Amino acid sequence: MSNMIILMGSVRKGGNTDLLVQAFAEGARRNNTVEIISVADYRVNPCIGCNSCFTREGNRCFQEDDMVQIYEKLKNADIVVAASPVYFYGISAQLKAVVDRLHTPMRNTFSIKKLGLLLVGAAGLPELFDAILMQYRMILDYFQLEDIGSVLVRGVREKGDIKGNAALGEAYELGLSIGMENKICRG
Ligand SMILES: Cc1cc2nc3c(=O)[nH]c(=O)nc-3n(C[C@H](O)[C@H](O)[C@H](O)COP(=O)(O)O)c2cc1C
Question: By alpha-carbon position, which residue is closest to atom 1 of ligand 1?
């Protein structure tokens, strides 16, 4: 069993990101230990670029905010899944604040091996997720992480628009596939 943390980046409880995450987590829980962190429930300041995490024990940030709790949870994570609504073609500010604060511990302290991505957005544009996907691929490459896959959902704007969308089934199936290979190998 792998330990998976899902960073849920929308403030809207029961919104489209939240429902997509729940479908994914339902599948993933079959073969993994899964914890969903709704990042908006934590008071996380942005990184200020002081670089003091380079030398501090555990590469932890000097800021004593709720990121302390998130660091603790990520210490034992093998897989991280980032989930966000598209905000101006990027991820939400709440999720970005958490991601930036992971920069040094991701390199030195954590043992995260795999990364996944769940995104929702209102527009139907083919290019809607391009900027985030570019960033995602660069992060995979920089941190030498394995991509577990992604589910990208266009055309969902109001809270709950995603209900009945085939993407929820797709997210469940992607979640279910994670860790399945270990099960098959062990017989
Ligand atoms: C500040 C803000 C910026 C947004 N920017 C975009 C955007 O650039 N492209 C887009 O398609 N949708 C954009 N949206 C719409 C959301 O991505 C969409 O409503 C999404 O379904 C919200 O997900 P949630 O229900 O999980 O909060 C934006 C919404 C907000 C509040």
Answer: 87
**Contact in structure between 98 and 63 (CB atoms under 8 Å):** no
Helix H or strand E encompassing 187: none
Which residue has a Cα nearest atom 17 of ligand 1?
A: 121
Using the atom order of ligand 1, give the atom closest to the CA of residue 156: 21
Q: What is the pLDDT of residues 74-94, one digit of tens each?
A: 999 999 999 999 999 999 999
**Ordered domains of the chain (ranges, CATH):** 2-186 (3.40.50.360)
Contacts of 103 by beta carbon, 8 Å cutoff, 6+ apart: 47, 53
| DSSP-assigned states of every residue in 50-108 | --GGGTSGGG--S--STHHHHHHHHTT-SEEEEEEE-BTTB--HHHHHHHHTTHHHHHH
What is the position in ligand 1's atom list of the atom closest to the CA of 160?
A: 25
The pLDDT confidence band at residue 180, using thresholds 50, 70 and 90, is confident
Pocket lined around ligand 1, Cβ cut-off 6 Å: 10, 12, 15-18, 85-89, 120-123, 128, 156-157, 159
67's tokens: 């990121």
| Phi, then psi, of 152 in degrees rounded to 5 | -120, 120
Token representation of residue 8: 């849920």
Q: What is the pTM of this model?
A: 0.96
Distance (Å, whole) CA 24 – CA 10: 15
- Given the CA of residue 121, which atom of ligand 1 is nearest to it? 17
